[in-house]
Batch of 2 targets.
Target 1
Amino acid sequence: GLDMDEIAWLTMAMAETGDMLDIDRKPIMDVHSIGGVPGNKTNVLVVPIVAATGLTIPKTSSRAITSAAGTADVVEVLAPVTHSLDEIKRIVEKIGACLVWGGALNLAPADDLTIKAERALSIDPRGLMLASIMSKKYAMGSQYVLIDIPTGEGVKVETIEEARSLAKDFIELGKRLGQYVETAITYGGQPIGHTVGPALEAKEALETIMTGKGPGSLVEKATGLAGILLEMGGVAPAGMGKKMAKEILESGKAYEKLKEIIAEQGGDPNIKPDDIPIGDKTYTFVAQTSGYVTKIDNKAIATIARAAGAPEDKGAGILLHVKVGEKVKEGDPLFTIHAESEVRLDQAIIHARRMEPIRIEGMVLQRIGNI
Amino acid sequence: GLDMDEIAWLTMAMAETGDMLDIDRKPIMDVHSIGGVPGNKTNVLVVPIVAATGLTIPKTSSRAITSAAGTADVVEVLAPVTHSLDEIKRIVEKIGACLVWGGALNLAPADDLTIKAERALSIDPRGLMLASIMSKKYAMGSQYVLIDIPTGEGVKVETIEEARSLAKDFIELGKRLGQYVETAITYGGQPIGHTVGPALEAKEALETIMTGKGPGSLVEKATGLAGILLEMGGVAPAGMGKKMAKEILESGKAYEKLKEIIAEQGGDPNIKPDDIPIGDKTYTFVAQTSGYVTKIDNKAIATIARAAGAPEDKGAGILLHVKVGEKVKEGDPLFTIHAESEVRLDQAIIHARRMEPIRIEGMVLQRIGNI
């Protein structure tokens, strides 16, 4: 594999093959999730919370590759996400934030080519992932970068040990690039919130930011990450960031900032959750037995949501009625598949029948009799 | 180690060194938990449910050795548990059930001696455990035996694979002894119900059997095990046992049978939960942070309850205010230690401060910054 110096040179070289953003507001914050946990609409909340304090956070995101929805797919339900670098500069200098698709920009264009070639040769996938992510942060001029590493069964990083080792690499690489990097190891063992798929996730994020209330996992993760950024950016005292983030969310200031972002990117800032069209072909799976939800399979949930049409069909996805640890009775709804066409709905149902996306267990796990 | 034939001969030889019970009611059912999960007052419910159908279940139990309360310690809060074999024969032939202390009887007396000697020599602990448990069932004349194998972190059997292997051994040994054995692998990753300690557990069991309602883990486990016994004993059709067990619990018939058992063993059948004295020296630990309960440490809970005085001080123990998966806010009560003396309470508090019996985690599991 590559050593850290080589990764740093590769990162800078990748960035310098393309355009660089030069924003006249400092410091520049950034946040990035390495991904893998379904329903992770978190940054739709984090960016407005951080920008509401006056910090600058020009967030570029990707679309889904293997997942059911990338942040760019979710934001696109609320506002256009394809903008030029000049347009981004104008927006961010005006309101301190954006939520755009990075793929439309000429940021580190060598990245995709290099990745394709070297992935085919199986050369140092970790070094390449680090360079790929950080080259784009470098091109955006980000000075303070928070990397979210979801950890748990069925995500990219399955153990805390692995997450810690990856965290160290990000921090080391950041030092060589002149960036101050922190990392948050977050719980990724089940989807975030109750929705998976672009429109369903946009609706859940919008409801949460409008009311200041939402699923525990979403609010806790968003305010936890935003809180770290507020401390990194020097607007919250050490240990007080999360509390401040929560106050900003509950006060409606984060919602005001999101409305500015939507408006500047060309969307309707007064969009309401009920305005968002959700796939109206639906099927609900119910519990076959009473018991406790002991597992929600991230990979199965993503597969079923994709079979239903996500991310291309924005209204396709999954609404979870339960989360891990909850008690259910036989016949209780577990999850609803939403699709825009009957054909995709049927596909998703076939996948859902074959997989066991939600596991229910009673106290008796197994009966073994006459063998 | 010993092979299965040797274990079978050892089991029968152990039984024949002592007295044998000859009850004139057939078939004779039995249930035994291999133990290790705190708060397991389950059989105080299972035995009355099974006997309420007319089946015969002369249950002998042990007192706590390393745990905070054995079934005999819990039952003793409600009624005397020390009876002669003749007295047990009379009770069981009259009402079909008992809940007594096995240690008062001359059942397989070679067992304790053999175990002591061979344990010191580290000879085949699994073979000895099998022989020890089954020799007592053999001496009681049990024909249909259900073995409960709690499985999970911090109990004797930590994995399902291990549980399955042990289950096979019990079933094989049963065949050689002329007994029909089934096993239930049950979830043992956290305490059963909300209480640990003789009086607290007796109170919870009595409340649950009187009202037909109680903590999910207790009701599910008790009706799950009782249901298997009802099917084994031929009073419930295959697959219908648990439903029948639940109906018997909810109808009050199990409570009527428990009252008969209490009366025949010399206790007050009209005892109410509020009549049971609980240690009045208490201390409540609260959550230091908001988040989700991700773990309750079985071993720590047992250690703290024993430090508080259980099982000798019957009123000592732990009341859990939360279970795994629940959401808590900073300052919410997590568990209350009950003791009968300030000295034991202080001891328990010291242990509880040092251990982390209940783990709370937010969505951000760890923040890694400048290293």
Target 2
Amino acid sequence: MTNAPTKKHRVTVVGSGNWGSAISKIVAENTKAHPELFHPEVKMWVYEEEYQLSPNHPAYDPAKHSQPEKLSTIINTLHENVKYLPSIPLPENVIATPNIRTAAEDATILIFNVPHQFVFNICNQLDGSCLPYARAVSCIKGVDVTPDGVSLFSDTIGKRLGIYCGALSGANIANEVAAEKFSETTVAYNPPIGPTKDYPNGLVEVPADLPAVDHAFLKSLFHRPYFHVRVVSDVAGVSLGGALKNIVAIAAGFVDGLGWGNNAKAAVMRVGLLEMRKFGKMFFADSCKSATFTEESCGVADLITSCNGGRNHKCAKLSVQKGKPIEEIEAEELNGQKLQGTSTASEVNEYLKRRGLEAEFPLFTAVHLILKGEAKVENLPDLIETL
Amino acid sequence: MTNAPTKKHRVTVVGSGNWGSAISKIVAENTKAHPELFHPEVKMWVYEEEYQLSPNHPAYDPAKHSQPEKLSTIINTLHENVKYLPSIPLPENVIATPNIRTAAEDATILIFNVPHQFVFNICNQLDGSCLPYARAVSCIKGVDVTPDGVSLFSDTIGKRLGIYCGALSGANIANEVAAEKFSETTVAYNPPIGPTKDYPNGLVEVPADLPAVDHAFLKSLFHRPYFHVRVVSDVAGVSLGGALKNIVAIAAGFVDGLGWGNNAKAAVMRVGLLEMRKFGKMFFADSCKSATFTEESCGVADLITSCNGGRNHKCAKLSVQKGKPIEEIEAEELNGQKLQGTSTASEVNEYLKRRGLEAEFPLFTAVHLILKGEAKVENLPDLIETL
């Protein structure tokens, strides 16, 4: 007979942008809902900054808020991330924590939700402060593609910190999730058993006095009535979906810019979905499952969401309609932010070209060529035709 | 050494609505493009009616067109189906033929493209007039679901006429295809070898002096630079996709009517896609392939098109927005035409209920209950939640 665990998991969210805050809200609702598994308190690491509360904010009090304050203080007082997720009440058990090492040091579950360009630096700051048996989940969209290979942020985090890291990705526009509009997501978690290349000494086991971290546990951590979760084992597929769909969203934007109609858009999305899957199967043969792309929220559903809206689709559409390079539209429309799809298209093309595989991915290749001005949008059907 | 075929196929399209005319156009372009396989002439059966050409038509000549004329005469003179596919030039090798038996009697390839309620009557008219070795393809969307079983129109046609019938279905809004806007489709063809239950004497073989009717041949018949074709063997899957997607389109319309956003819509589409596939696998286990639903134009792409537009989606959305039963919206919006999704939802539910399987298809069941007023749209997430 197994003894029931006597301890509980402590959860920390590393990141407090709009998606990080939305995930903190969900997780804090669940730590309260499942007291048998979790300490209620969820620490949320906040990159500290000074913030001046607007006099229009309903909680504004001139006696308290006339000067800029620390963002973490405002979050812990008003229970709202007034800067990055305004107007959404956060549960009071979300505790904004400006020191990243303090935030992480007693966490048995770490959820990473930061812009991808900050991952390396954050791991450097965290180095040595995590519990050796902590488990992590990366909500960071995308993968790191260089001509030499494709690396997953979950792997980067896991290797750098010496802990195991899974992934979460889905059709998840953060503001819709935060507003409790119905959404689904996919969580991937598949820790290795025994020593592996990445974990030569094997993973440090989760102590027996803590609840086991398995698929059912992760569902309890993330699933809400308005945020349905499926947990799978394919970390590579879940991570790749969130990156490669942006290439397809650009193609869908091109087609919408031309006014080609619903058939054409659906066709481009179908072809793109199969290329996403083929890429996964070709380069992560050991782990990538077909079903992750064609059945899960992180695959087909995220693709649908991204092709019906989102900045990659929008900028590609405008670029065709206005007859301008997409970089110009990006500068006009995104207020300094960068399109992920254009860089992913270029990185993926570089990777494929080096392996002589461009022809195997006609849609990815066509998007890259069109973005470079070396092919015409109007020729997309010819470029992806298979005879 | 095999002798090259000395004869050529003759193609007839049974039907001349907007989709029938668009398919006739495509097929006639291909009979000209592949003279080694086909006689160029494509007969198109036209349900004869009198039609008064508008004085605004560019070809209107008061000396010729002041009185109503036979529609078949107008089509053969102006090379345009002025009533059902106006403004689209038809190739001159499309020959409108008002007598259905004359249209079919020398055809080696019959393409059925009529409204589904006319299938039985048309087969009765054709009985005994088809070549025994003719092959057919049904472009009729949907399936015939009764509490006793699901029958495919392709099977109904094939059995009634004693010939083999495959199917064509995809993300194909007819007017977009006719305007040569890029589209894809799926053709399914899998004639039995030897005697079967449906063909106790086996199929009559296509004579050796005719080109073989195989997947490559069917691609030559339907594929165009603007209409990409994939040929598969799963006739049941291709046919089911075109019917079941209408239930999902209603769910997507509900979600859009509530203004729930892109995440929710993508979630409902993903759940619906998997229920479509499950239905196919459960009831056509021998033949239905998973991939037909998740990978082909007739599955995921047609679903996407139908959830981004189309009458089922539109009426469901308006019904939520206006707080009216969908039947009222149908009467207001469709000018006497009927929604397929509502009847399919009810027929599929009847079929599932009799087998005690409603809980296995929570989205299909939820749509039916909402349409009947026995569940609320707002509860859709709860109704489809799996714990």
